[in-house]
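Reviewers of the previous submission asked for a worked example of the structure-prediction workflow described in the proposal, so we include one complete record here. The input consisted solely of the amino acid sequence. No template or homolog information was supplied to the procedure at any stage.
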Amino acid sequence: MVHQNPVLRFFLFVCTLYVSSSSIPWPPKENYFDQTLDHFNFQARNLTFKQRYLYEDKWFKPNGPIFFYCGNEGGIDSFWNNTGLIFELAPSFNAFVLFAEHRYYGKSLPFNTSFQQPYIQYLSIDQALADYAYLIEGIKSTFNMTRSLVVAFGGSYGGMLAAYMRAKYPHIIKGALASSAPVRWVAGEGNFHDFFESVTKDYRDADPKCSEKIKNAFNLAVQLSQKPDIGYKQLSNDLQLCKPIQNDFEFYWVLKWARNAFVMMAMLDYPYKASFMASLPANPVNVSCKNALAVTDLIPTLREAVGVFYNSSQSLPCFDYKTQFIECADITGCGLGSDSLAWDFQSCTEMNLHDDSDSTTNDMFVSLPLTKQQVTSYCQRRWGVTPAFNQLSTFYGDNNCLVIAMLTY
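From that input alone, the workflow returned the following structure tokens.
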């Protein structure tokens, strides 16, 4: 059977594609689009900001498609450098490649480095989706591509945006590939603790002895904390912390700091060296497990394992956990720098990135719950906002997105 639908042919091709390491064009072609600050306030429509976008048009032929990457929580150049699939596909489809930077991230800063209220109030998913819709239409006009179909791409949060673009703007987006898009979790429709169980599974798959040893190390850390006078000293020494743990608050900070490293390595577990969010070796989960199993004592196990993420250069004499991990409204962490401020605000408004459950037999971490009440209190204090926990499920649902959008997970 020959499929006449060009979008369906595209997805069938993707299903049979073997993605190899390819040459990603560098440096990318860069430009800025005059973007409306507030798409939903007619009185303020004369306020604009410069939205950055990257593109490559060398493969494009008339009526070829536009492969549109929905930028997520970071500078768009990082996603350009780590999304090889698009560049594998583009030559075969004579596609125009377009990467859009998300407002308030990278260089697309409406108020430069001002991330406080009232300047940050224009950061929302709906505003970002509208940005993308207007940018696509603008690029189509500029490059004379008015008849080109658009396929949205995205990973993680960007994958959510790709799905939402297909659902909200189906006349613009004809298909979407959403990789590892946590649509249900972030909308509050699933059990978020499954995330930590999935991280544990990565380590268990690398070596069952690895996840078990890490779990035992976390449990021993909790036991040592019950005798803080001697326990905190031992933990500080064995973990090689720059400043010793002084109290329970700092102890739990250290636990979250350690958990964050395992989470990030699982999310960035590429089979090749990468500098996406961190400088990591190929297969960082395997490397982390190898380091963990190479030492005998349990607390040094944690030190050697998380060092793959926090000390990839092996040049740090100690770990400054308070600067390497900052707690926020996202239980998995918000990162560092200005991008972390924007993500924290988003986590305080529309996202469900909390987990009030205790640890289970299926995960290697100790219980570090973050409840709705704790998130609400934090967000009101930090940003002066109250989270709208039901907003994404109400606006976009779950099954509706998956049916309307052609998605690949």
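The chain has two domains: 6-188+394-404, 193-389. We consider this example representative of the routine output the project will generate in years two and three.
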